[in-house]
């Protein structure tokens, strides 16, 4: 004779197993459906990001191939709030070689530094120019004196817009006391320079175009104009996990209702 305890517990299945209670099944089904919605949303978001990134890369590629504009026009566009990143520009001025700042970098597999040198403009304002790469052991300007250009120079390069704050938690702090930087903090980079009281530091920088300075270093044209675009694989991942969850949910529903039918 079957005991009352058995009847009060979980329902017995024909194969001897226990069927999930109605409440547990409802909770599990809700969790699965919620997970499917979230995963589908994440996948769709990555698809939207993919289209945005592809459009951004196309605009950057088109922009860097345009004819260089003059610095005055670029300054007006920047002051008007336009996006000037990666815009080719032509400018002239005098390098303040004593104000070099150094950013850890690599070039063709070699470790070294990108040399940012302040350029004094005719109106007394200043802009930092990334003159390019020097090997690790050529950071000291005395080892590349031929490249310390004196007098008026004309530069053609690409405008870059620095971040307004530290880009990420894992990026080391800048060390202005040693002229060593890991991200472009213009105020810290300009600290210690002797400028006129009304002089301004332009809120963007310029990466010098291809070519080597006298003596071979720095070497310009090292700007990376591409950026990671992994949104497609992220979308596939989220959609794939969602599909697996759909299958698992279907199996759970079938085990509860399909066998009974």
Describe how the helices and strands are arranged.
Elements: H1 4-8, H2 22-64, E1 69-70, H3 71-79, E2 88-95, E3 101-107, E4 110-120, E5 126-135, E6 152-160, E7 180-181, H4 186-190, E8 205-208, E9 211-212, E10 219-220, H5 231-258
Parallel strand pairs: 1-2, 3-7, 5-8
Antiparallel strand pairs: 2-4, 2-6, 3-4, 4-5, 6-8, 9-10
Helix pairs in contact: 2-5
What would you say this structure looks like, in words?
The chain has 261 residues and is an alpha/beta fold. It folds into two domains: 81 residues; 134 residues, OB fold (Dihydrolipoamide Acetyltransferase, E2P) (Beta Barrel). Helix content is 34%, strand content 22%. It has five helices and ten strands; from the N terminus they run ααβαββββββαβββα. The strands form two sheets. A five-stranded mixed barrel has the order 2-4-5-8-6. The chain has a two-stranded antiparallel ribbon with strand order 9-10. β4 and β5 form a beta hairpin. α2 runs antiparallel to α5.
What structural keywords apply?
261 residues; alpha/beta; OB fold (Dihydrolipoamide Acetyltransferase, E2P); five-stranded mixed beta barrel; two-stranded antiparallel sheet; 10 strands; 22% strand
Return Rg in Å: 30 Å
The CATH topology assignment of the largest domain is OB fold (Dihydrolipoamide Acetyltransferase, E2P)
CATH architecture of the largest domain: Beta Barrel
The CATH class of the largest domain, by name, is Mainly Beta
- What global shape is seen? elongated
Low-confidence sequence ranges? 5-12
Structural class: alpha/beta
Order of helices and strands: HHEHEEEEEEHEEEH
Count all strands and give the number: 10
How far the N terminus sits from the C terminus, by CA atoms, comes to 27 Å
Give the helix level as a range of percent.
25-40%
Tally of discrete structural domains: 2
Mean pLDDT: 90
Approximately how much beta-strand content do the residues carry?
Answer: 15-25%
What is the count of DSSP helices, taking H or I runs of 4+ residues?
5
